[in-house]
């Protein structure tokens, strides 16, 4: 006999392990959206009237973030950064376009190859690809948000990502990193570092996949070709095994981290930030790491959206 939803007579669509309950698609959707709303309120992610830029990759997490924020009535626009990683990036852009059209949300597209001359993976450097990819993405979405007057940048990081990042950084005792993560990273440097928010902070990857399925959200399933072998994937696997055995492991781990984060703050060496000589954005030396890596001599500007 099929299991029934906890709140109605319909057949269950998902079994949640923590809290334990069976839910139909409608009640699961309600549960999920309520949880996002609670995250936004509890951690004060968004103030009334703020304009939010959602970074959409074409994947499930950012698509679900945009979908829920729009449904909850927030003022959002989306930004897709085409990384120039061959067919993978072309497909990602297609998905991002379709997702935003369906949602009826404005989408801005920035193409790394057009803007910087080379795509991610095409630069000759000793630096690992994911490291300069991360640097490039963070710089672009922050500068785009700053130049266009957005109050916050929302990303699709979910509970599995956060638990994985925290554990991976604990394994390396990367206390600098551990001192400043969380569901919201406030604006700094006179707003030049725009506020970063993570509305899916308390939702597992499995719940995000289920929400996309229940709400007909299509997304790019393929992983980036450079992601293979990333330690974060291994760490996430270990956390999943523990979650199987002890439901609630991930959320309790992340909430415990937020309570104890202060322990790491003493280790924080606040870099003496100043304005980059090239672009004017925050830099720890004379030139910011983005302008240094891409050998910029002019500030990066975006064609009008
Ligand atoms: S960092 Fe690395 Fe990702 Fe950039 S190169 Fe691909 S895997 S996309 S999240
Ligand atoms: Zn139901
Ligand atoms: Zn710079």
From TrEMBL:
Protein residues bound to Zn(2+) 1: 5, 8, 24, 27
Keywords recorded for this protein, A-Z: 4Fe-4S, ATP-binding, Iron, Iron-sulfur, Magnesium, Metal-binding, Nucleotide-binding, Transferase, Zinc
InterPro entries xrefs: Ncs6/Tuc1/Ctu1 (IPR000541), Rhodanese-like_dom (IPR001763), Rossmann-like_a/b/a_fold (IPR014729), TilS/TtcA_N (IPR011063), tRNA_thiolation_TtcA_Ctu1 (IPR035107), TtuA-like_LIM_N (IPR054306)
Pfam families: ATP_bind_3, TtuA_LIM_N
Superkingdom of the source species: Archaea
Cofactor requirement: Mg(2+); [4Fe-4S] cluster
GO MF annotations in UniProt: 4 iron, 4 sulfur cluster binding; ATP binding; metal ion binding; transferase activity; tRNA binding
Residue ranges occupied by any Rhodanese domain in the UniProt entry: 23-97
Chain sites annotated for binding Zn(2+) 2: 276, 279, 288, 291
Gene Ontology BP, a term: tRNA wobble position uridine thiolation
An annotated GO cellular component: cytosolic tRNA wobble base thiouridylase complex
Family matches, as Gene3D superfamilies: HUPs (3.40.50.620)
NCBIfam families in UniProt: TIGR00269 family protein
PANTHER family, alphabetized: ATPASES OF THE PP SUPERFAMILY-RELATED (PTHR11807), TRNA-5-METHYLURIDINE(54) 2-SULFURTRANSFERASE (PTHR11807:SF27)
Record protein name field: TIGR00269 family protein
Taxonomic source organism: Thermococcus aciditolerans
């Amino acid at each position: 006999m099929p299991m029934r939803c906890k709140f109605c007579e319909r057949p269950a669509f998902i079994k949640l392990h923590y809290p334990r309950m069976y839910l139909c698609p409608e009640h699961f959707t309600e549960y999920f959206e309520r949880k996002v709303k609670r995250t936004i309120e509890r951690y004060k992610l968004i103030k009334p009237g703020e304009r939010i830029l959602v970074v959409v990759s074409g994947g499930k997490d950012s698509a679900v973030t945009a979908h829920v924020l729009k449904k909850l009535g927030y003022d959002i626009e989306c930004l897709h950064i085409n990384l120039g990683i061959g067919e993978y990036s072309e497909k990602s852009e297609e998905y991002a376009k379709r997702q935003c059209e369906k949602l009826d949300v404005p989408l801005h597209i920035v193409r790394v190859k057009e803007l910087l001359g080379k795509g991610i993976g095409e630069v000759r450097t000793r630096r690992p690809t994911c490291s300069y990819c991360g640097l490039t993405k963070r710089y672009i979405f922050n500068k785009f948000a700053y130049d266009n007057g957005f109050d916050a940048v929302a990303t699709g990081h979910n509970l599995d990502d956060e638990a994985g990042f925290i554990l991976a950084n604990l394994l390396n005792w990367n206390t600098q990193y551990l001192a400043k993560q969380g569901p919201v990273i406030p604006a700094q440097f006179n707003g030049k570092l725009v506020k970063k928010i993570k509305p899916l902070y308390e939702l597992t990857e499995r719940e995000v996949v289920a929400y996309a399925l229940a709400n007909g959200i299509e997304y790019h399933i393929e992983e980036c070709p450079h992601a293979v072998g990333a330690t974060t994937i291994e760490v996430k696997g270990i956390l999943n095994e523990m979650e199987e055995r002890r439901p609630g492991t991930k959320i309790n781990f992340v909430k415990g981290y937020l309570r104890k984060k202060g322990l790491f703050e003493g280790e924080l060496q606040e870099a003496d930030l100043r304005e980059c000589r090239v672009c004017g954005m925050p830099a720890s030396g004379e030139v910011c790491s983005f302008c240094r890596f891409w050998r910029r001599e002019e500030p990066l500007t975006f064609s009008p959206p």
